[in-house]
Amino acid sequence: MSNESVQLIYPSDEIVKNAAVSGMDAYRALCAEAEADYEGFWAKRAREFITWKTPFTQTLDESNAPFFKWFADGKLNVSYNCLDRNVEAGLGDKVAIIFEADNGEVTKVTYKELLAKVCKMANLLRSKGVKKGDRVVIYLPMTIEGIVAMQACARIGAPHSIVFGGFSAQSLRDRINDAGAVMLITSDGQFRGGKAIPLKPIADEAFSMGGCESVKNVIVFKRTGGDVNMVAGRDEWLHDGLANQPETCEPEWVEAEHPLFLLYTSGSTGKPKGVQHSTGGYLLHAIMTMKWTFDIKPTDTFWCTADIGWVTGHTYITYGPLACGATEIVFEGVPTYPDAGRFWKMIQDHKATIFYTAPTAIRSLIKAADSNAAVHPKSYDLSSLRILGSVGEPINPAAWQWYYDNVGGGRCPIVDTFWQTETGGHMITPLPGATPLVPGSCTLPFPGIQFAVVDETGADLPWGQGGILVCKKPWPSMIRTIWGDPDRFVKSYYPADFQGKYYLAGDGAIRDADTGYFTITGRIDDVLNVSGHRMGTMEIESALVANPLVAEAAVVGRPDDLTGEAIVAFVVLKGARPTDPEAAKKIIKELSDWVGKEIGPIAKPKDIRFGDNLPKTRSGKIMRRLLRGLAKGEELTQDTSTLENPAILEQLKG
Ligand code: PRX
């Protein structure tokens, strides 16, 4: 981006005038405030935006860095902040959730009703012996009950760990085991795209693998009415359990550092890690980003299309909007059912004002709209919208422009929010009433966040030069540790390369030479981003080599127009390499299904290729750079002289 090519897109006067952060001067003033008094900047908002049971006196404790503590002597409860205080403020009859089911049925829940539901669920958990600090795994679809379950855990101080409903029995088992959960909350099944998909049977399979012995109770929500096997003494229907529970429940007042949740995410090595988040700092950033990035107002209807199985669903469905007393839309289904106009119809029907989704969804809906005018956003009344958001992966400028023109009608700023499971909330993002936009750039850090682009030694790089994205200062909503593995936490995020001083995001970035705007250039580790879902290449490789047919496997990513990145697997079989295309097809299907069963359908490779061996150096190291080139279909111009067995490249060309 040089000055001639950068076309800044400015927010309208109307948006600027009414925004919480109004104009670039206001943004700069906030950054300067944080610069001048870092702790004071956060403490001021923590006092203003959170209701504390016991106010904190210390803001940041760096004595055991990088295990930072924020507001450590303060006490609070997140569920109280999301529900009770809104009811106390007179919002009891305001709609908190507009739930639209897969089949289009709409259910509205007010703040008062939601509070009663959460209290009943919290009482049920307590009646089963769940107490402060106990972990509860939630394996539920997108439903009101999913949000209620999370809030109920928060109410009693039991950290939850959500496992996305698309994950396999093996993944569920591993997460239950690692977290040492005492309870599982699941459902008989889930509705997606008009189909009922079983969930409880997958949980049963997870239990049958062994390693889930810590779980004493399984609560089952009846959603689809599918066949369910209940284990006497352990499993109970949610409706039975809730039947006689009181509608009030005293919150557990916890220390600000008490873990609110664990959320497993993929890293570059080994098994997924349990990212541990705090209570006070996490809540603060959820609220601040709702206010400043989304400019949330009492009149807004907010819609984040994520699933509660991912961090976006935690911060921008379960916690952020409710902590701000907003009305939000929660959607059970998929964007393409009954047709690809579903999102646009829902925005029209519910008069959504803020809409937050992922680039992959936009790209697939562009494709659909191109071939069918009836599902084009222009066929719907989207005039209620005022702000659009994007999250999870880079948004290519063409998709950005289409989103801006066709969904936002050229009047809604797009906040391209860069953040991670580990960061808890937005890190680099435009503020809608301040930041001039550039398609494809997440622009500038959120006020108070100190991101920089550095080289391998940690030295700052000049604008215009690509490098490693780091955060120079701790922030309130940051990851506290990896559950049960503090060493891995330090190694992964505070590596010795930067003297243990900088948070390593794992992404590369470049700042525009003129504007200083950040563009994320992609992961610098072996993590792939497929449709906004994070996948470790090693995780997929481990799944493949666990198949009895496979001797060795290497997995790389390749750019994909629709999903951002696609998974390509290079496999060496124990038996002979199939030369007959039909035989190869059969094995490819078997391996793909296997990965789906081991991890989940999202991890299925798009392309599987066979070789007699993998390209390795003479010392036996797999040459991944070469594989990435092969995956893309590039002509090999790289030096292959260190390659032990150049002949196999031909086989792997695909
Ligand atoms: O590579 C970045 C990409 O998604 C990664 C984080 O994934 P996850 O922890 O699953 O959280 C996703 C939802 C916050 C990052 O390391 N990423 C996320 N948002 C963006 C992005 N890449 C470019 N632009 C974004 N806006």
UniProtKB/TrEMBL annotation:
Domain AMP-dependent synthetase/ligase: from-to ranges: 90-475
One GO MF term attached to the UniProt entry: acetate-CoA ligase activity
> Which annotated residues bind CoA?
R192, G193, G194, K195, T312, S531
First-tier enzyme category under EC: ligase
SUPFAM superfamilies assigned: Acetyl-CoA synthetase-like (SSF56801)
Under Enzyme Commission nomenclature, its number is 6.2.1.1
Q: Where is the AMP-binding enzyme C-terminal domain?
A: 539-621
Entry comment on modification after translation: Acetylated. Deacetylation by the SIR2-homolog deacetylase activates the enzyme.
- Record keywords: Repeat included? no
Domain Acetyl-coenzyme A synthetase N-terminal, first and last residues per copy: 27-82
N6-acetyllysine: residues bearing it: K621
What does it catalyze?
acetate + ATP + CoA = acetyl-CoA + AMP + diphosphate
Role? Catalyzes the conversion of acetate into acetyl-CoA (AcCoA), an essential intermediate at the junction of anabolic and catabolic pathways. AcsA undergoes a two-step reaction. In the first half reaction, AcsA combines acetate with ATP to form acetyl-adenylate (AcAMP) intermediate. In the second half reaction, it can then transfer the acetyl group from AcAMP to the sulfhydryl group of CoA, forming the product AcCoA.
What name has this protein been given in UniProt? Acetyl-coenzyme A synthetase
Q: Which organism is it from?
A: Dechloromonas hankyongensis
